[in-house]
Write a structure and sequence with these properties.
Layout: H1 7-10, H2 13-19, E1 36-40, E2 46-48, E3 54-56, E4 68-72, H3 73-79, H4 112-115, E5 118-120, E6 126-128, H5 134-146, H6 153-183, H7 186-202, H8 210-218, H9 223-226
Antiparallel strand pairs: 1-4, 2-3, 5-6
Length: 230
Amino acid sequence: MIDAHSNHWGKLKPWLLALSGGKCWFSEVRELYSHYDVEHFRPKKEAKMLDSKVRDGYWWLAFEYTNFRLCGNVGNRKKGGWFPLKEESRCSSYTDQCEDTETAYLLDPIDIHDVNLLTFDEEGKVVAKANASDWEKQRVAETVKRLKLNEHVELAEERRKIWNKVSKLIGKYQYEDARSREGRNEVARHKAKEAAKQIREMTRPTAELSAVAKWSVLLRNDPELSKLVA
């Protein structure tokens, strides 16, 4: 019955694309992670646990737009109905709807706390932030594995390229900025401004893999460089 009306969420795809600047909400790329699906964050039919056991899905959220996420079908196919909860978590049901108090493994791309658990390394891999708790590290590891965020070789390679490009721009900015300060060199000042502009453009939320570009800057712990982030 639910699948017979799947065009309901399909019609929202252009709206969801507009919210993310045309990017997948999980991988942050446009074409590399394959075609887009409107994914149900909480699965509509059945929910699979860590041990592969299945419980009832969130059928009452099948047509609720706040449960929709835009996802490249590489991750969406891999995720399927996967939605495990922490052992002691409450479990929402139609008669006791408590989604807000569930303790889920899957990171939510519209939850700023969840998003801020992720950082990246220079090899293009997704990693948990340095001060993450054990539970937060488990959530990151399970989400990354389930959505193939590191296993997808082309995606990791593209992140590595972005990281390296930003690193080179930072080096150029620092070199030209130092030259412009020492000798009032207007040519160097212009080159520094151009490098800063490119960094800002790459870190804008609508830019592809902007989170990788942002962390390439922020992990240097340099207050002056942090000002370049859009």
